[in-house]
């Protein structure tokens, strides 16, 4: 236990002695301004002063590196940023070392953007008593967006804001707010004020406001249009009613901004005192838009609007692109079509599909399919489907990918006998279809070649081979994108005819017999000569010479000793034996 306490005391003393781990009190540092708020694009200076002798303060940012330029002296440090950006909104800290310990103080730099006063406008034209008017307030290029609030006032009386919509435009944003107010007979001159607040702490930067004065025309009243907005399908009927009162009684007319001053012939308009109805029997897509009812009594006039949305299925649909394209080229198919609601456009292939290489981009009523580098397997029919809930249209485009010869091979060749048939086959894929031709690298007799061609295949046939047909045959597969050459060796073996075979056999038997008989005589003679040479030389009777006897003498002596009276073989063996005894 004592060891643990001693270890804990040692650790605490080490931490106290380590200046990096100790933070002091804020009274050792002073920062000005205390709560800086700077407009985006302007400059700012943050000053940090050390209140301890020999202090050396230094600015640091809590995230990333400190922007701007830091100038330090013995007791103070100044961080200057010449142009503040929205990204500089952050917490900055100043650190100083006093008496071997570090002390720090933090300050948050707020930035804002509020360059314009709000823009207030009245959306309802020529308002009259009893009418519900719509006002809009727009604030532009604001920051920070999350602190924005919009307030409406009528003659300095706070009203309830019904709708507030932020429109983000990073990093700045716009904000739009609408106010609907129903007038009455007591209203004549009205002043509406829109105030936008940023929610900042600094005075003078909290808000900006703008006002709009509205004067009601009390000579016209109860001006109404029904419906103010409607959605109808193409082919359905449309009916819009407009009414109003005044003194004198107002006249009601109709117009459509995109139709010009002339009334379209398919409009049916009925009128009675203070009331008018516009009727269209069968709506077309071009009938969608804004319809204006103008109420006028000669002294005063006002308008009301009705928005008509005509829904219809896809129409004017077409597909662009396709046709012939070469391998490795880019393909772009475009599909367009009009519809309301906006159509959804999708792509498919009727054959094998590799959609992982498709790049599809969509915009309003338009879609593009792109393949950066075509392959032969991309060939086929591409289908574009344009659809919404009221219908769909399918269009197709044929894509033909051209490529040079591939998967080319030659079959046949090798060894064959004379008079046999030869068939060489050459195949290959290509688009456009390849042309296949044959040739020989040696002497050629093409008049006996029978060549048949089909799609991507050619056969060379020789019904009866001859020795001169032997050689190397070449197959050329080509189209406008390339060519491939292949070769095949053909060896022709000569066949011996039956009559030639009989003659050869007839001559070969006696020739072989003669050759064997002569060879036997040669061997016998050689053996006899060898035996005679081993014995003593023969001498003629009465000869006393001791010199050597030649072969011719030996043979002569043998001839003298051999009786020439036609003795038989037994006599011959006897003479040979006697001669042996005499030797």
Number of strands: 39
Query: How many domains comprise the coordinates?
Result: 6
Q: Which fold name is given in CATH as the topology of the largest domain?
A: Immunoglobulin-like
**Helix run count:** 4
What integer value in Å does the Rg equal?
Answer: 59 Å
The rounded distance between the terminal residues' Cα atoms is 139 Å
Q: Beta-sheet strand percentage? A: over 45%
The CATH architecture name of the largest domain reads Sandwich
CATH superfamily of the largest domain: Immunoglobulins
Query: Which structural class fits the helix and strand makeup?
Result: mainly beta
How is this structure best described in words?
This protein folds into 6 domains: 19-112, Sandwich (Immunoglobulin-like), CATH 2.60.40.10; 119-215, Immunoglobulin-like; 219-312, Immunoglobulins (Immunoglobulin-like, Sandwich); 321-403, Immunoglobulins (Immunoglobulin-like, Sandwich); 412-493, Immunoglobulin-like (Sandwich); 531-540 and 548-562 and 570-575, no CATH class. It is built from 4 helices and 39 strands. It is elongated, with a radius of gyration of 59 Å.
């Amino acid at each position: 236990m004592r060891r643990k306490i001693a270890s804990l005391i040692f650790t605490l003393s080490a931490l106290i002695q380590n200046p990096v781990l100790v933070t002091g009190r804020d009274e050792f540092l002073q920062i000005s301004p205390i709560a800086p708020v700077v407009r985006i694009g302007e400059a700012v200076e943050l000053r940090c002063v050390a209140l301890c002798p020999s202090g050396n303060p230094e600015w640091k940012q809590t995230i990333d590196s400190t922007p701007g330029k830091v100038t330090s002296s013995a007791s103070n440090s100044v961080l200057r940023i010449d142009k503040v950006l929205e990204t500089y909104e952050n917490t900055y800290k100043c650190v100083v070392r006093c008496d071997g310990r570090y002390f720090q103080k933090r300050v948050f730099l707020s930035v804002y953007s509020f360059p314009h006063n709000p823009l207030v406008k009245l959306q309802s034209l020529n308002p009259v008593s009893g009418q519900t008017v719509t006002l809009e307030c727009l604030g532009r290029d604001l920051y920070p967006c999350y602190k924005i609030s919009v307030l409406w006032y009528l003659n300095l009386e706070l009203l309830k804001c019904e709708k507030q919509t932020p429109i983000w435009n990073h990093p700045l944003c716009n904000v739009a707010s609408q106010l609907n107010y129903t007038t009455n007979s007591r209203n004549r001159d009205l002043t509406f004020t829109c105030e936008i607040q940023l929610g900042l702490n600094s005075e003078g930067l909290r808000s900006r406001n703008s006002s709009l004065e509205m004067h009601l025309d009390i000579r016209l009243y109860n001006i109404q249009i029904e419906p103010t907005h409607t959605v109808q399908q193409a082919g359905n009927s449309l009916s819009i009613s407009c009414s109003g009162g005044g003194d004198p009684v107002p006249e009601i007319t109709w117009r459509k901004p995109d139709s010009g001053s002339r009334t379209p012939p398919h409009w049916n308009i009925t009128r009675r005192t203070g009331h008018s109805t516009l009727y269209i029997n069968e709506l077309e897509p071009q009938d969608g838009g804004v319809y204006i009812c103008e109420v006028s009594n000669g002294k005063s006039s006002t308008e009301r609007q009705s928005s008509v949305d005509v829904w219809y299925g896809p129409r004017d649909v077409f597909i662009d692109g396709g046709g012939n394209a070469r391998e490795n080229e880019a393909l772009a198919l475009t599909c367009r079509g009009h519809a309301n609601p906006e159509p959804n456009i999708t792509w498919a292939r009727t054959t094998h599909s590799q959609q992982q290489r498709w790049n599809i981009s969509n915009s309003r009523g338009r879609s593009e399919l792109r393949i950066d580098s075509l392959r032969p397997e991309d060939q086929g029919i591409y289908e574009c489907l344009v659809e919404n809930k009221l219908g769909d249209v399918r269009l197709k485009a044929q894509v033909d990918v051209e490529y040079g010869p591939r998967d080319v091979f030659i079959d046949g060749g090798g060894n064959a006998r004379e008079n046999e048939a030869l068939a060489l086959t050459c195949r290959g894929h290509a688009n456009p279809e390849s042309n296949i031709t044959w040739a020989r690298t040696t002497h050629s007799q093409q008049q006996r070649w029978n060549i048949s061609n089909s799609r991507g295949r050619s056969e060379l046939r020789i019904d009866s081979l001859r020795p001169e047909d032997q050689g190397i045959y070449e197959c050329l597969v080509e189209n406008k994108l390339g060519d491939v050459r292949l070769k095949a060796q053909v060896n022709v073996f000569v066949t011996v005819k039956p009559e030639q075979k009989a003659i050869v056999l007839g001559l070969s038997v006696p020739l072989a017999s003669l050759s064997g008989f002569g060879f036997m005589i040669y061997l016998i003679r050689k053996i006899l000569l060898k035996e005679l040479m081993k014995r003593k030389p023969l001498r003629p009777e009465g000869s006393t010479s001791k010199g050597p006897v030649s072969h011719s003498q030996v043979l002569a002596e043998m001839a003298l000793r051999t009786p020439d009276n036609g003795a038989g073989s037994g006599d011959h063996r006897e003479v040979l034996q006697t001669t042996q005894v005499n030797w």
